[in-house]
Design goal:
Helices cover 34% and strands 16% of the residues. By secondary structure, it is of the alpha+beta class. It has two domains: 62 residues; 87 residues, Orthogonal Bundle (Arc Repressor Mutant, subunit A). The strands form two sheets. Strands 1-2-3 form a three-stranded antiparallel β-sheet, covered by helices on one side. A hairpin with a 2-residue loop joins strand 2 and strand 3. Helix 3 packs across helix 4. The longest helix has 14 residues. 31% of the residues are buried.
Length: 170
């Protein structure tokens, strides 16, 4: 098993991309909540020398520049069955839209699971690639984000439709 990582500079600060064999398994900010130990990332490689990490860095750069709406990468985040199910639902939230933790819980048949959904969203090892920034509080408020609320706001504003951004007064 070939575990390796690269660090790229972005408008959101340095981002670590982690790969195992031919799959992206992690995307972490430097001050990421629940960031695994650096040792678990394997050796650092220069992304031009690693085709998969190079492609992930390229697509992430295009996304952050507003030139890419979706990612086309092999992804595999490590999590339990419930977390995996939550992350799958999160990937279905359309760009420019948000969904509440409670609404995701309802899709599991029990709105009382909202807190568990929040824990699963918070454990997402593939931030941005699995767009957990699109999950918001019950009243639409920005709540929790492993990379911090400033980054969550940036990502949501990046994705919002132009008409919405033009109408925003803040």
């Amino acid at each position: 098993m070939s575990i390796r990582h690269t660090v790229i500079d972005t408008d959101l600060g340095p981002i670590t991309l982690v790969a195992v064999d031919e799959t992206i398994t992690g995307l972490y900010f430097r001050q990421h909540i629940r960031r695994p130990s650096q040792e678990s990332f394997g050796p650092e490689v220069a992304n031009p020398t690693d085709p998969l990490l190079n492609e992930a860095a390229r697509q992430l750069g295009e996304y952050l520049a507003g030139d890419r709406a979706e990612f086309d990468l092999p992804l595999a985040g490590d999590g339990d069955l419930f977390q995996q199910a939550v992350w799958e639902l999160v990937t279905r939230i359309p760009r420019g839209e948000t969904m509440t933790y409670g609404r995701i819980a309802e899709q599991f048949g029990d709105r009382r699971l909202a807190q568990h959904v929040g824990q699963a969203v918070g454990a997402n090892p593939l931030c941005i690639l699995v767009p957990c920034h699109r999950v918001v509080g019950a009243n639409g408020s920005l709540t929790g984000y492993a990379g911090g609320l400033r980054r969550k706001r940036f990502l949501l504003e990046l994705e919002e439709p132009a008409a919405v951004g033009a109408a925003r007064l803040f």
